[in-house]
Automatic annotation (TrEMBL), chain A:
<feature type="transmembrane region" description="Helical">
    <location>
        <begin position="99"/>
        <end position="120"/>
    </location>
</feature>
<comment type="similarity">
    <text>Belongs to the binding-protein-dependent transport system permease family.</text>
</comment>
<feature type="domain" description="ABC transmembrane type-1">
    <location>
        <begin position="64"/>
        <end position="252"/>
    </location>
</feature>
<keyword id="KW-0813">Transport</keyword>
<feature type="transmembrane region" description="Helical">
    <location>
        <begin position="193"/>
        <end position="212"/>
    </location>
</feature>
<keyword id="KW-1133">Transmembrane helix</keyword>
<dbReference type="InterPro" id="IPR035906">
    <property type="entry name" value="MetI-like_sf"/>
</dbReference>
<feature type="transmembrane region" description="Helical">
    <location>
        <begin position="68"/>
        <end position="92"/>
    </location>
</feature>
<dbReference type="Pfam" id="PF00528">
    <property type="entry name" value="BPD_transp_1"/>
</dbReference>
UniProtKB/TrEMBL annotation, chain B:
<keyword id="KW-1003">Cell membrane</keyword>
<comment type="similarity">
    <text>Belongs to the binding-protein-dependent transport system permease family. CysTW subfamily.</text>
</comment>
<keyword id="KW-0812">Transmembrane</keyword>
<feature type="transmembrane region" description="Helical">
    <location>
        <begin position="95"/>
        <end position="118"/>
    </location>
</feature>
<keyword id="KW-0472">Membrane</keyword>
<feature type="transmembrane region" description="Helical">
    <location>
        <begin position="60"/>
        <end position="83"/>
    </location>
</feature>
<protein>
    <submittedName>
        <fullName>ABC transporter permease</fullName>
    </submittedName>
</protein>
<dbReference type="GO" id="GO:0005886">
    <property type="term" value="C:plasma membrane"/>
</dbReference>
<feature type="transmembrane region" description="Helical">
    <location>
        <begin position="12"/>
        <end position="33"/>
    </location>
</feature>
Length: 259, 280
């Protein structure tokens, strides 16, 4: 078959756009290896000094650890709440359930600064400012929409006659949910949990409003680093995160291929 | 103990998440409306101040302009990618999908930092151009609207590609094949047969990108360098620099209302439920 101009346009265009998406992520790699004390390409030789300063900095390590465990707590809380919510809505499937689903996805649509303002005033009243619990609570609310969307997507593939069969064979609502529905939607729950972790791990605006000095997450330290002095340690941290993302994407892509 | 109906049991699954959401999210966001009419004085003083301020007007116009340009840019670039992935199947298609998804996993902060490294005064782009002796003085590539737009398009692009991809996957190739069989050129078949079928995906992508861009904070704040004050940054500025909670809240209400209006207008042209609730 003759290759048409049409086809060439779309194919080259697509690769150019993909390059625009991916290549800027990779610039942090050479910059992280710079032998200078400012952001730039390596001048004389490659150096690991900025990785060393990351691994010897209590501030960076503490913030990394905080982000990880806060993210895990958020993923657990949001997955349990969001899965129960979606399963309930799926069974009810009335107008009220649809409205409930709209309520749960509002955090996707409300601007981050606006919701953070709201959090701040309310968290002051509850005395939750600068506490881990306050951050976990806020992040769980922001993560709930993603869990509910993922679990709902998994439920869309479930035949409603299956739980009906379980019920008519004498299973209680609770047994049906735990033994029939939950195993069926497990992939959706897993996707939701991963999304919830990432939402929490990346979140910055809420953290800037809700924390002062005691609670420091990784995005907050990066944010302050970019604002105050551009230290190449940020490039080292970024390189780690980009590499983790590359590996995660590769795993997902390979699993999809074999599945 | 009274026996619960099945329906009540299902609601017991729904309620914990819903209650937490209403108490800790919806109420605090509604609290902003209250602040806007009670601080510093009772009444609509903040709204009067807001409508009279030229700086606010400038910021709103800028916000809508940046969001609109970002949306158009993401749709054009995203369409090309989504079309190629769904129509020119080859061995590299999974790789292309992975490359679209990859930036999703990378923090917006990191992506903005990458653009700062690229576009700064002594950033990689300027350094390269100087080494090639194409320029003598560094170009201003960030701390202006250009820098904000480039990085916003970069951040928002996957949000445009994914809905279009989902939509294009559902389009049967037989209509285009039929048009081709009847003698239409590849371009005509695309324009008058394929393209109209992709409009729902295009609209979902546009809606998502536009709404997210209106309230976006991180990238404009970092790449704008305080010179491109989009409304979100303007709000934090009022609150953190001037402690003007009332005015900041009034601006937040205006931003919320603007976002809601965009959604309402969109609802006239598309099925919001399928675009937002039934994504993926």
């Amino acid at each position: 078959m003759k290759i048409s101009a049409f086809r060439i346009f779309f194919n080259t265009g697509a690769w150019l756009v993909l390059a625009f998406l991916v290549l800027p992520l990779l610039v942090v790699v050479p910059v992280s290896l710079t032998d200078t004390s400012y952001i730039g390409m390596p001048k004389e030789h490659l150096s690991l000094q900025h990785y060393e300063s990351y691994f010897t900095s209590p501030e960076w390590l503490h913030a990394t650890w905080t982000s990880i465990w806060v993210g895990l707590a958020v993923a657990a809380a949001a997955t349990v709440l969001g899965t129960a919510f979606s399963i309930g809505c799926w069974f009810i499937s009335s107008r009220a359930a649809t409205i409930a689903r709209w309520v749960l996805i509002t955090p996707i649509l409300v601007p981050p600064v606006v919701q953070s303002l709201g959090f701040y005033r309310f968290w002051v009243k509850l005395d939750l400012i600068d506490t881990y619990f306050g951050v976990i609570l806020a992040h769980t609310l922001l993560a709930l929409p993603y869990v509910s969307i993922s679990v709902f997507a998994a439920l869309a593939n479930l035949d409603p006659r299956i739980p009906q069969a379980a019920r008519s064979l004498g299973a209680s609502v609770w047994q049906t949910v735990v033994e029939v529905i939950v195993p069926a939607v497990r992939p959706g729950m897993l996707t939701g949990a991963v999304f919830a972790f990432i939402v929490s791990f990346d979140e910055i605006v809420g953290v800037l409003f809700l924390t002062v000095r005691r609670v420091n997450t990784l995005p907050k330290v990066i944010w302050e680093g970019i604002q105050e002095n551009i230290d190449p340690t940020i490039a080292s941290v970024s390189t780690f995160l980009v590499i983790i993302s590359l590996v995660a994407t590769a795993i997902v892509a390979l699993r999809r291929k074999t599945a | 103990m009274p026996r619960l109906t099945d329906k009540a049991r299902y609601w017991m699954l729904v309620l914990p998440a819903l209650a937490i959401m209403i108490v800790f999210y919806i109420l605090p966001v509604l609290g902003i409306w209250e602040i806007s009419v009670t601080e510093p004085d009772l009444g609509f003083g903040n709204y009067v101040k807001m409508t009279e301020s030229n700086a606010v007007k400038t910021s709103f116009i800028l916000t809508f302009r940046v969001a609109a340009i970002t949306t158009v840019g993401c749709l054009l670039l995203g369409y090309i990618v989504a079309y190629t992935i769904s129509n020119f199947a080859s061995r590299v298609t999974p790789l292309m999908v992975a490359l679209v998804l990859l930036p999703f996993w990378v923090s917006v902060l990191i992506r903005s930092f990458s653009w700062i490294v690229l576009l700064g005064r002594s950033g990689l782009v300027n350094d390269t151009l100087r080494d090639l002796e194409l320029i003598t003085r560094p170009l201003r590539l960030m701390h202006n609207e250009f820098g904000v737009l480039v990085s916003m398009i970069h951040v928002m692009l996957p949000f445009a590609v994914l809905p279009m991809l989902a939509n294009m996957r559902g389009i049967s190739p037989s209509y285009t094949d039929a048009a081709r069989g009847l003698g239409a050129s590849e371009w005509t078949a695309f324009r008058s047969v394929y393209f109209p079928q992709t409009l729902p995906g295009v609209f979902s992508g546009a809606l998502l990108v536009f709404v997210l861009s209106l309230g976006f904070f991180v990238t404009p704040a970092l790449l704008g360098g305080g010179r491109v004050l989009m409304i979100s940054e303007y709000i934090t500025y009022q609150i953190q620099e001037f402690l003007a909670w009332g005015l900041g809240s009034a601006l937040s209400v205006a931003l919320l209302v603007a976002t809601a209006l965009v959604l309402l207008v969109a609802a006239r042209f598309m099925n919001l439920k399928s675009a937002l609730l039934d994504r993926h």
